[in-house]
């Protein structure tokens, strides 16, 4: 049942020009940055060759590319998630799901899975670019995988937050703006906690990109994984609660 | 799913003391009724009387504050999946995705109602044939006319062959011919299942339904067979009279069996009296004695519309 809902969601996304446009813009911009990064790396190669334990092509090309892609996800996700529930509530199609023999959590997970699959497609397309370097360079596949995992976890977190905010309103634009604001707040929250050069551990922990940085360096820490999973689970839980409440109050 | 021995008369929906409040407002207040196979129940009432709210609760879209809903033997609260499987719901606004084709929409809905691939293909063909959608199978719902969208909505509601169909104002916005087609379809569907049809058109109830239920500010004010309501309209309960020299209305009110006097102006009055006890004898006698100069006396039969309006206004004219 989850897959039926996810499949329709994905189909709806691919039937809209918005999704294709976002894919194209992301891919185009990232490809441009990728070429610049590759060019820079080639210029540096001579000097790097003399160094002991020099950063490789994965560190110099893939990691910065993924860092930019993370910013891209921050901009793109609100536009993809804004319609998930708000549109269904506005046009009344949510009634079809609510009157069908399907639980509310199934509906929420189905929609989440649908949009997540789309975002993972986007991540896969980004990952393809550094992968092409494997033809002529020695890639660190472990680091590359860690980078892809980082982007995927970020996408999962962003999508969960977007899903929740789209359940709060019937106006997609409001949902998009709120999602963007919320994600940006989590992105820069570590800057708030700085006093006398030291960062408050709480705000540092809340900050989204801080958990990704370790992964981009190829450092897999379970606390980072837990952070992303908790972030996603919290917003999914809130979404279910929100829909339950809407069913009570009409 | 319809069993082999789906007989008419079997109760498929039981509603007990259903209530829902919107803040301070009373949305629906202690509504109880039952629906059997073979019944097409017309749900009448002015806008805002709580019809849609009631139907939304029956469909499981809105949770009731109090009361029980039992659909085909399953309690909507305890066994929501089983109960919802037995219900087909068409809300006021058909829940259709504009970007899907008719086939895609119906397939999605069939899958949501747990039909497997083969069963859903079969159900789709049957639904499209019944609702006259064969020629628009591959068209986008966003490009269909309102009449066709309504039909897709009905096809979607009956796809999984539920014993209970709930249709919220299915003919609003249709032209007369489309409206008649939909009504014919509903009558046909009502032969072997229970159908609830909400509307504010009395004519629609008269042509389509065999049961009537009237709601007024959240309460059920009438529930019975259409035939009973028809019977009432032939029993006169009013007398219109014209007098050239009328006495004060209070004097008319003292006539035997008269319950209420309505002054229509120009010496005309409407006397409301108990059914079957017209005060014409007494009136003639008094008119002669008092020199009222009676020039008109016409019994007025309340039309079905009048009866319904009076029920909605909460008067006891048809008691």
TrEMBL record, chain A:
Give yes or no: UniProt keyword S-adenosyl-L-methionine: no
Superkingdom per UniProt: Bacteria
Compartment(s) of residence: Cell membrane
Where do transmembrane segments lie in this chain?
A: 12-41, 61-80, 115-138, 144-165, 177-205, 225-243
User: A Pfam family for this UniProt protein?
Assistant: ABC2_membrane_2
The membrane topology of this protein is: Multi-pass membrane protein
What coarse category fits the chief subcellular location reported for this protein? membrane
Q: Single GO cellular component annotation?
A: plasma membrane
Q: Which GO terms describe its molecular function?
A: ABC-type transporter activity
InterPro entries found in the cross-reference section: ABC-2_transporter_component (IPR051449)
Does this UniProt record's set of keywords contain Transmembrane? yes
Which keywords accompany this UniProt record? Answer: Cell membrane, Membrane, Transmembrane, Transmembrane helix
Quote the protein name from its UniProt record. ABC transporter permease
UniProtKB/TrEMBL annotation, chain B:
Do the record's keywords include Repeat?
no
InterPro entries, A to Z:
AAA+_ATPase (IPR003593), ABC_transporter-like_ATP-bd (IPR003439), P-loop_NTPase (IPR027417)
Q: Is Chloroplast one of the keywords UniProt gives this record?
A: no
Highest taxon listed in the record's lineage: Bacteria
Recite the UniProt keywords alphabetically.
Answer: ATP-binding, Nucleotide-binding, Transport
Give every ABC transporter domain span.
13-242
From the UniProt record, which GO molecular function terms apply? ATP binding; ATP hydrolysis activity
Q: Which Pfam families match?
A: ABC_tran
Q: Which PANTHER family match?
A: ABC TRANSPORTER, ATP-BINDING PROTEIN
Family of the protein in this entry: Belongs to the ABC transporter superfamily.
Q: Name the chain's protein.
A: ABC transporter related protein
Per the UniProt record, the source organism is Candidatus Contendobacter odensis Run_B_J11
Lineage of this protein's species? Bacteria, Pseudomonadati, Pseudomonadota, Gammaproteobacteria, Candidatus Competibacteraceae
